[in-house]
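hiii so um. not sure if this is the right channel but i have a protein structure encoded as tokens and i wanna go backwards to a sequence. like what aa goes where. can anyone help
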């Protein structure tokens, strides 16, 4: 960051913009040293973040152990709620797959029947046009 700040000093001093530029120029190194903030908490990479839909009745720990950890052993589950902050952030939600519960399959109309209806409509339109101009 010091090199980037110096190189772009005449252009901008916006910290958020400089962070975005540095992030865009960065490449993920899976073997790099774990980065921590000033309080010692691990800084997680936002670009490698993923979301899972955990069934409401199931324990998150059980779900993680069964579905996630076998594939990504260092994965961590987060609660994205900060209710004690000055500006509380709450990101709890539910997804209701409506089609799974409410969709009822209807057999499509056979193409022969559609062709017959189209032909009848075409004849009806032709007759009306003939009356109109005849």
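sure thing!! here u go:
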């Amino acid at each position: 960051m010091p090199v980037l700040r110096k190189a772009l000093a005449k252009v901008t001093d916006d910290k958020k913009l400089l962070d975005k530029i540095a992030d865009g120029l960065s490449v993920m190194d899976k073997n790099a040293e774990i980065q921590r903030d000033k309080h010692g908490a691990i800084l997680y990479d936002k670009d490698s973040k993923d979301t899972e839909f955990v069934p409401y009745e199931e324990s998150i720990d059980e779900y993680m152990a069964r579905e996630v950890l076998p594939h990504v052993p260092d994965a961590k589950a987060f609660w994205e709620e900060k209710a004690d902050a000055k500006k509380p952030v709450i990101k709890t939600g539910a997804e209701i797959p409506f089609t799974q519960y409410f969709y009822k399959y209807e057999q499509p109309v056979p193409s022969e029947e559609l062709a017959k209806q189209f032909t009848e409509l075409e004849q009806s339109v032709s007759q009306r046009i003939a009356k109109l101009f005849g």
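oh and Residues 37 and 120 are 73 Å apart (CA to CA).
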